[in-house]
Amino acid sequence: MFKILVVEDNADMQELFCTVLENSGYTCISTADGKEALEVMYKEYVDLIVVDIMMPNMDGYEFTKTLREADYTLPILMVTAKSQFVDMQKGFQAGTDDYMIKPINVKELVLRVEALLRRAKISSEKKIVVGNTILYYDALTVSVNGEEMILPQKEFYLLYKLLSYPNRTFTRQQLMDEIWGMFTESDERTINTHINRLRERFSDCTDFQIVTVRGLGYKVVKCVE
Predict the structure, then answer these.
(1) Residue 123 has pLDDT above 70, yes or no
(2) d(CA 84, CA 18)
(3) 38, 69, 113, 219 from 66: Cα distances, Å
(4) Are 98 and 77 within 8 A, CB to CB?
């Protein structure tokens, strides 16, 4: 059973988050600020953290930054009333994996927690399996029906990203920013070229399909379960 640490100074919100998460099958530990949460982290194994930003003693930014600097890689979800882009940017720069703005839909909270835990499992294993296709992140290698091929770095990262989130549409700009970097001089045509190469390489693969979402970008659709 996954263990979630809820770091929230508002007692009502703390109780709500824990109740919803426990009803969804998770074990919850709750603390009222970052310092108290760090003490828990030294004693308990935690799979995921839900953290507020505005708290006494140590706020969510400092808490998250402290964990990342100590090489904690577990998923962190910030849930906060701070809705400005600059606040969100500061959260991601501190090391959060996701960001929700209050008031929140608790059903969405559970979905995001599930997605973060699923992503963390993929990341820790550094392997994705779709039918008879296996992607090995460290080796930039794809095995299809037992036959292995080493992909160029950018092609592999692009395919790995899409297969990590089947059925989710990514815009060309999102893919460019993540894989080529926000300050790349390449344009979106680069994405199209790499997608076409991937389609050619996996034209005989029946495990997944790279789909163009007109006017938006691309997604991967699994053909097997």
Answers:
(1) no
(2) 26
(3) 9, 5, 21, 35
(4) yes
The pairing of strands 48-51 and 76-80 is parallel
CA distance 41 to 48: 11
pLDDT digits (tens, 9 = 90+) for 209-221: 999 998 889 999 9
Across residues 80-85, what is the average pLDDT? 86
pTM: 0.58
- Secondary structure of the chain in the HEC alphabet? CCEEEEECCCHHHHHHHHHHHHHCCCEEEEECCHHHHHHHHHHCCCCEEEECCCCCCCCHHHHHHHHHHCCCCCCEEEEECCCCHHHHHHHHHHCCCEEEECCCCHHHHHHHHHHHHHHHHHHHHCEEEECCEEEECCCCEEEECCEEEECCHHHHHHHHHHHHCCCCCEEHHHHHHHHHCCCCCCCCHHHHHHHHHHHHHCCCCCCEEEEEECCCEEEEEECCC
The residue type found at 158 is L
* Separation between Cα atoms, residue 163 and residue 160, nearest integer Å: 5
Cα separation, 187 vs 185, in Å, equals 6
Q: Which two tokens stand for residue 194?
A: 């790499």
Contacts of residue 156, Cβ cutoff 8 Å, sequence gap at least 6: 135, 140, 142
